[in-house]
Amino acid sequence: MIALSLRFAERELRGGVRGFRIFLACLALGVAAIAAAGSTAEAFRQGLSSQAREILGGDLAISIQQRGFTPAERGAFAKAGRVVYAAGARAMAQAASGDRRLVELRGVGPGYPLAGAVTLQGAPSLAQALTPAADGTAGAVVEPALIDRLHLRLGDRILIGERSFIVRAVLLGEPDRIGRGFALGPRVLTSLAAIQATGLVDPNMLHGETARIALPPGGDVGRVIKALKTALPGDDLDIRDRGEAAPGARRLIDQLDYFLGFIGLASLLAGGMGVFGAVQAYLETRKRSIAVLKALGADGALIRDTYLIQIAVMAALGVAIGLGIGAATPLALGQLAQNALPIPALFAVYPAPLAKAALFGLLSAAAFSLAPLAQARATPPAALFRQDLAARPGFSLEAAGALLAGLGLAALTVVTAPTPIMALVMIAGVIIALGLLWVLGRIAVWAAGRARGGARGALRLGLANLAGPRSAARTATPAIGLGVALLSAVVLIQSSLLDEVRAVAPKSSPALVFTEIPGDRAAQFDAEVGHGIGGFDHDDFGLDQSKIIKRDRFKGLERDAGGKPLRTFPHPAPGADRYLRFPLITGRITALKGAPLDRKRIRQDQRWAYDNDISLSVIGPEPTGAGVIQGAWWPANYAGPPLAVVEQKVAEAGGLKVGDSFTLSILGRDLTVRVAGLRKVDWGAFGADFAIVLDPAALAGAPLRSIAIAKTDKAHELALTRALGRDFPGVNVISVREQLESAAALFDRLALAVRGAAAVAALAGLLVLAGSIAAGASARSREAAVLKVLGAARVQVLAAYAVEYGAVGLIAGLAGVGLGAAAAWPVVVVVFQAGWSVDWSGLCVLVGSAALLTGLGGLIAALIALSQRPAPVLRTP
How far apart are CA 297 and CA 318, in angstroms? Predict the structure, then answer.
């Protein structure tokens, strides 16, 4: 029987793929989307892996914050291999014109880089570019952005910190740039000796130092790391190997791979309805052959196997087409944008993502094609001769196969996802969306049937077709609606986040952030900034001195003859809405409730405050908007044991409650504090954005610098930045406005790519619509012929079809927008914690496009039907 089925299938396939065009298109589109997303992500992963040593800067990278490496640490590094040191800090670069810009200053030692090469323009080598001038002025290479911002030329001098530098070359690329992460300003590269002479790597200032090690040939990285951890106990050394060269970039690639792949899967599911309709339409055209075979004695298994073989061959062809497109897409991307990509990529044909896409495609084809095949197998010959291919009740082998294929799709999605729970949520969301859209399609059919009684002319004809058994609302509404839902979700997420960056954040966030403010010149700095942003009364901004602190927990606190501290800290005043200043120091949590900190017991996504040093502040009286939700702030004159107010989520991550104690390592000393209260911090808003705030007595005598925030317009910002360069050259000025503009531009580009991917799902819906039109072409031609014979005008027929299909598009568009909003809202409000903003123009375009495109599809169907003469059509049985 198998041989006979193969023979029958081969004979029917000789006619070509005419009946399977929509089948092939729907299947190929979804497979291509999944394959392209996986192949592109794999190209980036391979690019990172191939350049992992260059990105890391060696075989190992050991970083430290707020201090330099000790002689013991340097000795241990030297035993491991060849070492190159580098130090980095943020500082203001000032040109001779007085223009200033925050830069990322980095000093590198001899032998840098250990792996890869620095790309320069204007100097033959990095060593020559960094060679000091005859007068001792250090050489530096700077990024093009700083050249443009400060209007520099090669040979010009810039002032950074307390040191002058000669611009010797333009810095075009560093091999380890990706591994160092995000930068607030353009990069300036100089020698390690030069940055140490700037005063920026003082223990009281924010800076970091890194040692990069090249192991000898055959060196075991794991063994060296173990030896270093044994020889250098402690948790302040961050040791990374080549597998962690760029962890942030890898996480981003994984998330984009999954998200874009999920869109491809949604496209495949939407196209699955087209597969279902295409198989059903094809079997409709073969029902006479099926009836003859059954009348001659063929059993259901022979019928099933004959057409199952044909479907399998077409599925393999569709998957192959999709794999070809998916494999070619990243190769084309590499040719078009290889030099503009921020992450290295090796574009090639990778078998693993293609195999995954092929498996998705085959499972989808099985899930959506076996059900109509079961109808053909179970229908008796008499019904087939009567042109009846109706479904028969009962569970069948084909239905079991379709169910198993659907479960396989879900399992494969969960297994290949970075977060299985999120995968399950997305799968449930798609299933619910398809179910709601299917129900809505049935409701539309019912409503059209009820409404046609009161309509006349073309409107009545259109509503009658919409309510009929071949209504496009039954098949096209779920597919088109799912595509519109994905697009609208992307549009709404994008509009909300962009509105947050462009409108909400500038209103609630500071325009400028000032760091490294000397503690002994705080009042003078306040006056300078007050004059620069339009003037204010000093008393309005917390310039009253703090209460006398009698305890000195840190040595070196200077006091006058009466015992009053000379170094005092101003407090932010309540109601200060344009300028605030806070003391700043960094520290690390080392123990919780008297027990040493075990980071493994803290969730990975909540560990940020426990993995590294964090910024702390000391504030006396409770400021306005402190956000205390449990416990209480200390009194203004408090001078008891050390207290802290902790951000709510940081406390939850460590299991801290009001009254619990924890230990901070600050300036090499351990300080045990008690939790006085928990607060909710509005990160990025105009206020005290610190995870931990201590009472002033806790850090009496500590050499604290300050950080300040201010609101001002762009004109005052530029003038103030220049003015501070004269009196406070060591103070860093961070333009939040500029960072928000850069973030908005980056998000725009990323959202454009995601929109393009989501449009694939909408295209799958249009293919389903095309399949629905093609499947009903014969019946539509007969309807048109009857209408013409009865005297209907051509315009009436065209209008009736436009009404029917336009209504389908409008219903699917409105439903899709509603579902997209339901999916986007929790992402915006819960995940990103941003304000909800609706892009009404974008949503109207989506709904209008859905109605317009489906209406055009109806007009095309009408034109095809009207192009045939009535007599031949009506004579066709």
Answer: 33
Q: Which amino acid is at 292?
A: V
| Pairing between β-strand 82-94 and β-strand 207-214 as defined by DSSP bridges | antiparallel
Residues 677, 633: contact at Cβ < 8 Å? yes
- pLDDT greater than 90 at residue 678: yes
Rg (CA), the chain: 35
Q: Is 765 helix (H, G, I), strand (E, B) or coil?
A: helix
Note the pLDDT tens digit of each residue in 124-142: 999 999 999 888 899 999 9
Strand ranges in 444-574 using DSSP code E only, listed in sequence order: 512-517
- Report the length, in residues, of the chain: 877
DSSP 545: P
> What are 646's strand-pairing partners?
678, 692
Residue 746: band (very low, low, confident or very high) from pLDDT cuts 50, 70, 90? low
pLDDT digits 0-9 by tens, 475-530: 778 878 877 887 788 788 777 777 766 665 566 667 788 888 887 888 888 888 87
Q: How far apart are CA 857 and CA 770, in angstroms?
A: 7
Whose structure tokens read 């077409």? 314
| Sign of the alpha-carbon dihedral angle for 806, 808, 811, 815 | negative
Q: Indicate if the alpha-carbon torsion angle 117, 121, 123, 129 is positive or negative.
A: negative
Q: Give the Cβ contact number of residue 403 at 10 Å.
A: 14
Residue 274 makes CB contacts below 8 A (sequence gap 6+) with 22, 23, 25, 26, 479, 764, 767, 768, 770, 771
224, 80 in Cβ contact below 8 A? yes
Q: At what angle do helices 287-295 and 300-337 cross, to 10 degrees?
A: 150
- Distance from C-alpha of 131 to C-alpha of 672, rounded to nearest angstrom: 47
What DSSP line would sit under 451-486, residue for residue? HGGG--HHHHHHHHHHHSTT-HHHHHHHHHHHHHHH
Beta bridge partners of 166: 139, 157
The 3-state secondary structure of 32-83, one letter per residue: HHHHHHHHHHHHHHHHHHHCHHHHHCCCEEEEEECCCCCHHHHHHHHHHCEE
Question: Quick one: tokens of 87?
Answer: 């130090």
Nearest to 307 by CA among 367, 405, 373: 373
Task: Give residue-wise pLDDT tens across range 767-787.
Answer: 776 766 665 656 667 777 777
246-287 pLDDT, tens digit per residue, is 666 667 677 677 677 777 777 777 777 778 777 877 777 777
Q: Which two structure tokens, joined as six digits, stand for 640? A: 């008891």
